[in-house]
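User: quick one - fold this with arginine bound?
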Amino acid sequence: MNNDKKTVKKPWGGRFAEDTDKLVERFTASIHFDKRLYRQDIAGSKAHATMLVKQGIISPEEGMAIVRGLDEIQHDIEAGKFVWQEALEDVHMNIEQALVERIGDAGKKLHTARSRNDQVVTDTRLYLRDETDRISDLIHGLQLALLSQAKRHPELIIPGYTHLQRAQPVLWPHHMLAYYEMFKRDKERLADCRRRINICPLGSAALAGTGLPIDREFTANELGFDDISANSMDAVADRDFAVEFLAALSIIMAHLSRLSEELILWSTVEFGFIELPDAFCTGSSIMPQKKNPDVPELIRGKTGRVYGCLMAMLTLIKALPMTYNRDLQEDKEALFDAIDTVSASLEMMTAIISRLEPKKEHIGKVLEKGFLTATDLADYLVKKELPFRSAHEVAGRIVARCIETGRDIKDLSLDEFKAFSPLIEEDVYDVLTVEGSLRSRCSIGGTAPETVAEAVRRAEIELNGFNKQ
Ligand code: ARG
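Assistant: Sure. Structure tokens for the protein plus arginine:
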């Protein structure tokens, strides 16, 4: 960046008698972060110039010079040869000024019938549209990893929890597909939000529209927008599409954080359900035995950061009078930071899930503890026509006896069972195994093996027929 002390003439300098204070230049500049929008800014300008030619507002020669000049600038930016100047505030004025320097007076016509107010929100919408698609693809990758993890261990039974207390046995693929569903909704949320992002504000000019004979539909079409904004004031002032986008990203992080928390818990000695790959963990400089789950911990930690971006955006817009206010420049860093954080977190989680190894033997050993089949015993009594509340009471008393005597439910003799309820017969033992328990949960969406196998098949079809819209 070129920040030398020489004074740069401002494109808006006409009515000013004094040069901008250097501190003000530094404070108001956004170039160090909004240069990230250069591709969208150039695409928007090219479409705008093409429209100006079509409408006879500038000549075809001027239009061609503008488009060629912008292409060269893009080339220089991508080759790392472009010098960004803080004194020119932002990506829009840096590029426009460079164009004027290259092509002369024709460059000065580019900003006809346009303002930075409609320009910046056009750039932001184009940028978020692309990012929405890219993040959707990353989620898709994570879903594929979850699905293949589900398919790799189709018969593995693990304890299912409520209140972090052992509840009922579930299949490993059922647990993986629970996250598959969450991320499926995340993709839907992004696709829905994209519909409201992909609206073209260009042509709203500063706030009130323009008197020049522009063709807004044409520009919108050139840029692949689905529609044009209906109200010029709303178009330059609105950032609710950015709030929605950050809300969608925040929910993705909430899901990633829950999954991270489970990976952290499962990799403890206390649970011992999984071994995280060494390449994804770090050690301790003092405790030689440690293998710390830093990656899921950081994903969990970064979740707060993305929520912070959402709060920043909501707070940013809450009391802004119509229409554009410079406050809105603060939207970009929150967006960029959230996008980077979510992207990196999704990539890391996909890599971990792909390499996750459940410790089947250990899980098998600890599965019997915790009376996971107590509900099955109650359900058994219901099938023998005992009302559920009474069945619950009987099963509860049987569990209490087992706790007292240090035994599992299925270790009781038939006589002992009969002392609790005469309805209990020899066939009770069939429902008291974790396998029997699983098989019985065949309601739609349940954990019975055939139900889960069907869910796996459905997920496969969904992922193969993946469509962003
Ligand atoms: N850098 C500004 C932003 O991000 C661009 C728009 C500036 N408009 C203005 N009238 N000062 O919002």
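One thing worth noting: The chain has 20 helices and six strands.
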